[in-house]
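Review form for a predicted model. The reviewer records the input and the model, then writes brief findings.
Reviewer: anonymous (R2)
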Amino acid sequence: MKIATTFVSVCCLTVAAGACSTSGSQTTATPGEQVLTLAAAGQGPAQAAVDAFQKANPGVVVKTTFTEDDASYQQQLRTQLSSGTAPDVFRMWPGGGNTMAVRDLGADGMLMDLSGEGWASGLSADLKAVTSDPAGKVVAVPVTIGAIGAVWNDQALAKAGLSKPATWPEVLTFCKDAKAKGVVAFALGLKSAWVTQLVPYALTASLVYGPNPHFTQQQLDGQATFAKSEWKQAMEKYLQLRDSGCFNDSPNGVGYDEQMQLLGQGKALGAVHVLSAVQSALNSAPQGTTFSMTPFPATDSAEATYLPVSVGIVYGVNAKAKNPALAKKFMQFLASSEGQALYAEESGSSPALDSPAFQPDALQQPVLDAVKAGKSTLYPDQGWPGPKVQQEHLTSVQELFNGTIDVPTLLGRMDQAFGEAK
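Model under review:
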């Protein structure tokens, strides 16, 4: 997910106004206390982890800075890292795809090597792929996994008397039936640029990356392109959803907050979104409202549906951290069963590492089921060679919905950005 600066994956995926705040149990340390500095995009889950860490480590003070807008956060952290004023620990994005992603920061030598930590030796190959720098050193701890699917307002869906679609034809029928009942099928807020990628990611999971998990490598090898692949069908289906009345009016003029209000208030039955967005929908939902998730179909067969599932939140340590030992200790906490369960519960996600303490709900169980059944794919941008590809995708989707470009132009731009980034 991005814009002129960039966001990501999806996931990631909490945004709001460009507000920034500093908090912590104390703002200055007293003699004998140890100080750790931390920055994150989004406050809630990170603050819960900080509070638990401080409670378990008397004498430790964590000074925190939270920025609610992903683009602002990425720009600020990049500037701080370049000037030597960055905090000890900070949230990043997995894999590649934006300027605050693991591979991009690792390539610039801004991250501490964590390969020797106990938790790092137990990472799976998939997890290592998105937490390692270009040299293969583990430089990030994976904290959560998230997914992009059809998120449902259960009470609104029941009131409308409609069933969750399991195939592409059922999606189009669902949109028609919802419109006849005076409600929006799927809320969409393209004014927040990072939201533009969510529907394409959901569609390409079943159309591109599920059937061909080697597609990105083929692109890197010069054997495949966006324009001459099922990405074209995915983007055409995105427009078909628009033209079939599946979305609210003028999605380019609707932001993320309003999108979540439509979902929370039941004015929209669902939204194709990252699961963590439910936390925002709950803010405007009547008491007792519950949400669930199903994979968003793109084909005529329910069995052919894949769910985009990727590591959502990762943390790394500044290569020039002022308190490296305490920073590594915080990494150990995040990798622990307690830390994983706490962060997942607070962020509406699932833990990236094994956590017996975590109990999945109606939103998270389908994620774990898809992974277990081999019906999951990574977010596409995590394999892209640089942030320009995602940036081009985000801005071009907005132009596509404005009618100023067509699908071939959009995919041509993405291919050009991909080639330039290789």
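Findings: The mean pLDDT is 91.
Further findings: The chain is about 40% helix and 15% strand.
Recommendation: see findings above.
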